[in-house]
Amino acid sequence: xxxxxxxxxxxxxxxxxxxxxxxxxxxxxxxxxxxxxxxxxxxxxxxxxxxxxxxxxxxxxxxxxxxxxxxxxxxxxxxxxxxxxxxxxxxxxxxxxxxxxxxxxxxxxxxxxxxxxxxxxxxxxxxxxxxxxxxxxxxxxxxxxxxxxxxxxxxxxxxxxxxxxxxxxxxxxxxxxxxxxxxxxxxxxxxxxxxxxxxxxxxxxxxxxxxxxxxxxxxxxxxxxxxxxxxxxxxxxxxxxxxxxxxxxxxxxxxxxxxxxxxxxxxxxxx
Length: 271
Description:
Helix 1 (20-31) packs parallel to helix 4 (131-144). The relative contact order is 0.13. The strands form 2 sheets. Strands 8, 9, 10, 11, 12, 13, 14 and 15 form an 8-stranded antiparallel sheet that branches. The longest helix has 14 residues, at 131-144. The protein is 20% helix and 26% strand. It is elongated and about 60 Å long. The chain has 6 helices and 15 strands.
C-alpha cells in the first residue's frame, strides 16, 4: 500500500493579489516536490493574530495525523519575536511566537515548543520582511520530509500565549461571556458552550444580552429565523453564535471581538 503524501496547510493574511503565497509555495515545492499543499485561507484580517488563532482552532484536528500546519500572520516580522515549531501529539505547527497558537496550547494536552535557530534550514538571504518565504516555508518543507525537529533549535517553555476569555459568573442572575470571533457573514461567535447554556436551560427561558440588546430566540438552523431577527444557535465550533438571517449580526449589534455577552444562570431558574 502506497504511503500517503505528506500534507502542509497554509493560513495567512497575505491575500492572493500579490506574489507572497506563491513564493512560499515555490520554496516548499522546491524542497519537497511530493508534498501536498492545502490552502486554508489567505484572507485572515491583516495582522489579526486572534482571528488566525481561532481559524486554526476550527480545522487543524480535522486533518490526518502528521499534517504540518503553517500559519503566518506576523505583524512582528523582523523584530525580536521568535520563530517556533509546536509539536503536538498528532500535528506539527510552524509560525511566529506571537500567541497565534494559543488555542492549540489550550486544546492539546501536551505540546513541545521549539525556538527555530538553525539558520542552515532557512532560505538565504533571509529578508527582514518576508519570513513566511525565507524561514517558515523552508522549515515546514524540511519537517514534511522527516527532518528531526530537534535539529532545528532548542525547546522553550516561555512561549507567548494570549488570554482566551473564559465564561465567569457575574452577579446574582448572570454569567458573563465574550464575543471571541466574527466570521465573514457577521455572525458573532461567543465563548459560551452547552456547558454554560444547555438546551434544557434554553427551554426554561434563558436569554442573551449583547450591547443592551436581548436575544431570546435559540434556533437549530438559520431557516427558522425571520428576516433581520437576532437569534442564537450552536455553531460548528460547538460554541453559541449570534446571527441574523441574511444580515450581519455584528453590524446590527455594533459588536466586535471582546464585547461582553450575558446569559441567565441555571441556578436562578424557578426562583
